[in-house]
Amino acid sequence: MNVVTRFAPSPTGYLHVGGLRTALYSYLFAKQQKGTFILRIEDTDQTRLVPGAVEALITTLTTMGLPPDKGPFIQSERLALYREHTQRLLDHGHAYYCFCSKERLLVLREEQQATKSPMKYDRACLHLSKEDIDQKLAENVPHVVRLLVPEGKTTFTDEIRGEITIENKEVDDQVLLKTDGFPTYHLAVVVDDNDMAVTHIIRGDEWISSVPKHIILYNMFGFPIPKFAHLPLILNPDKSKLSKRQGDVAVEDYLAKGFLKEALINFVALLGFNPTADREIYTLEELIAFFDLSKINKSGAVFDHDKLNWMNGMYLRTKTTQELIELSKPFLKTSNVIIDDAFFARIVEIEKERLVTLQELADRAQEYSQTIAYDASLLIWKKADTEDAKMHLIALKSVIANLDESVFSDRALVETAIKKYIEEGSFQNGNVLWPLRAALSNKEKSPNPFELIWMFGKDESLKRIDQALSLLK
RNA sequence: GGCCCCAUCGUCUAAUGGUUAGGACAUCAGGUUUUCAUCCUGGUAACAGGGGUUCAAUUCCCCUUGGGGUCACCA
């Protein structure tokens, strides 16, 4: 049997990280089984249309390396299909018209809440006479079509959780077709998954309780029932369902902050699944090879930003300088950093190993291309004094001024030259290197002075030392 | 509240009817180093509780507790 999975988000305008993982797992499984990965847009709620959302979704999915094999199928373009199926249900008495107003439903719900009885539709419209119904229909009274949930219970086997049974009396007579003629999720999802021959429904845990409605529909239509795999939720640090209120949830936001798609994919893949338990870093290809629905965890996973940061740093460090330059271009642009290519290349080379995101590269570029305001006290090493710092900086000025340009081709050569000065004078490293580094960076923490000299070049280095010296009176 | 689901270090997780319960992130302490980062070494840290079953339970069963999800003409 040809495996078909689908990712079926509603078009909210961005891709939620939970959605990313759902899409990823669906993609991994389809690829591993040599099957088909479908994208379907669930836009049956006309009150929540977001312009451009479909395009944004496809763009993000594609840049994340998860392009669908088929689709996008747009539910709002398939209304006839849903109506047709609704009619079938009506004809067989599996569904019924409901003319109840929203006000009545609201009152009903409040009553049920007050009396602590089950929150279900009371089937007031189920026993309407044929004449009544025809008349209301003829008068265009607003109405919906509801599923007539049969008695009994519904059992299904989830690929991740095993057998689950829910009493049908717990299931509401779900609205299938809304007043506006659009289907609800429950109708559309069943009709479409069948129509598209989806074999494995991989989706979030929050859908588990509505599976009975779907199974009931599958049975009423006589459709074969697909496999279900409900993924554990991705959680906030407080263990609630990952939400906007507690940080970024949009994949686009992470991308914009300078997280790499590889890191995001890798990180999210490990939320609820552990391919081999002997390492943390996996390529997409490896994930495809190792993916196993039965090995997915049952419990929710907290989204740990610290680990994402670490992982992004790991991926960043595997990139070549040239790759990092390319990757950081959009960040330089949005941060309005104009910088010389060769200078930026050196910044990348040096900052590479202390990077967490690409945005930081743009930040560093900005800092290093600005003239700095000095904090004179920073120039003095804790074990030395002003006179000492001044003496060394003056001496170093001439050391650097006399360096051949060829020395600047290699960080190690710069280091050798400076170290030679230290050796010949039998100085302490700190006496020389601290003021030098501080003069160049005016930062308490920074790359070492050799790297800074190499990065800034002779002129800028001398200029910065001069500036520092002018403060040491 | 009804129903459903879940339960190993702070977090992500591995393993097993008999193990010193392993790894990673975070954290702490050392080493390297002028500082930071990297890197190296080491440490702290978990089987929610109670009953069973068993020669033996973290592992299997039950209960409790805790957490989560869901109860829309939203998905």
Care to describe what's here?
The structure is a single chain. With 473 residues, the chain is mainly alpha-helical. Among the domains are: 80-177, Glutamyl-tRNA Synthetase, domain 3 (Alpha-Beta Complex); 319-368, Helicase, Ruva Protein, domain 3 (Orthogonal Bundle); 376-471, Arc Repressor Mutant, subunit A (Orthogonal Bundle). Helices cover 47% and strands 11% of the residues. It has helices at residues 17-32, 53-63, 79-91, 102-114, 130-138, 185-195, 211-221, 251-257, 261-269, 284-290, 305-318, 321-334, 341-351, 358-368, 386-401, 411-425, 429-441, 449-471, and strands spanning 4-7, 36-41, 70-74, 95-98, 144-147, 153-158, 162-167, 175-177, 200-204, 227-231, 234-235, 301-302. The protein has a three-stranded parallel β-sheet, with helices on one face. Strands 4-5-8 form a three-stranded antiparallel β-sheet. Strands 6-7 form a two-stranded antiparallel sheet. α1 (17-32) links the parallel β1 (4-7) and β2. α9 (261-269) crosses α11. It is elongated and about 105 Å long. The N and C termini lie far apart (83 Å). 34% of the residues are buried. The protein binds one RNA strand of 75 nucleotides through α4, β7, β8, β12 and α11.
